[in-house]
Amino acid sequence: MRVSPTFFAGSGMKLFNRLCxxxxxxxxxxxxxxxxxxxxxxxxxxxxKAKWAILMDANTNSVLYEKxxxxxxxxxxxxxxxxxxxxxxxxxxxxxxxxxxFSTSIYAWRTGxxxxxxxxxxxxxxxxxxxxxxLQGIAVQSGNDACIIVAEGMAGSEEAFADLMNxxxxxxxxxxxxxxxxxxxxxxxxxxxxxDLGKLSLHVIREYPEYYHYFGQKEYRYRKHxxxxxxxxxxxxxxxxxxxxxxxRQSGYGLVASAERRGQRLVVVVNGLKSKKERxxxxxxxxxxxxxxxxxxxxxxxxxxxxxxxxxxxxxxYVDLKGKGDVSILLxxxxxxxxxxxxxxxxxxxxxxxxxxxxxxxRVTTTNNAVxxxxxxxxxxxxxxxxxxxxxxxxxxxxxxxxx
Length: 404
Description:
By secondary structure, the protein is of the alpha+beta class. Helices cover 32% and strands 25% of the residues. The relative contact order is 0.17.
């Protein structure tokens, strides 16, 4: 059950503090700049030719624009971001190294190599390539053969590797996506949403900064071939540094890209476009519009306590909540709408709780229902309380539903 400490009844002082928090936050933002325009209202001033699209801010987890962002779509080669995430995790965990060698099977060669007529790294049949070579072949050339070679080398088969992709997706909160191969080649059940693709990209940027640069590599030389990165925005004035393009007949042309400007990082997803030219233009337009139209506003300092969450059966009844670093939201530069905020979580929380565990979200909403959601973390350790305390609290919960 999701509960909000802002409106959750507790001791008189705790309830007073929560109400003061809500009022103070609403007043703070109203005085500072007042409001965030909703995605619906943004569509009145901005529209894209893409069938599916989303624009996200990396620092605040804000959605600045969306269009059919929760509809399933074939992601094509954009799903290779997940393939690379699996590789990055294995490298970071020490289960693989860049010097590990993988050989080309007949299946990999026929399905994703020279005979396939698709984007390929052209690893010769029955020859080996190092993981470092294959990784660049995926990032720069979008080589389908390279993806399958790695998938077979890591998991034994492409189907087994797809299982790893699905498990990883669930772990990081991709709610709708299903993966059936490592390449993004057409399969009726290989589907993602624009929102999930944006979340995945943000995850990779944050979780694997030591490997993210591969997405922005402009050129790769392998054997007699010279490959140039297929992402047009890394050569553009918008100066994107990742991530992937995609095309299959069933989806049209797509792009997931990220760029950073003056400390602000945006991620854009567009798909369902008619040409490479449209893909480049629409991706660039969304990024430029985002950088031009929005500004980050700080609500709380890095070490500031934002609120608290109720704990069941712990050494303390409440745990203080903080952000990870400064807590900020993104607002239009010409904002004119009030906002309100609440703390939400699945609760009451159960110990043990470790300092730094993500246990809640700060949800900032406008009068027209636009949402910023910022993760909140436990500011202290909470251990398990004695059994008698758990018994008493269980009885109170049954009797009063924790209205205490």
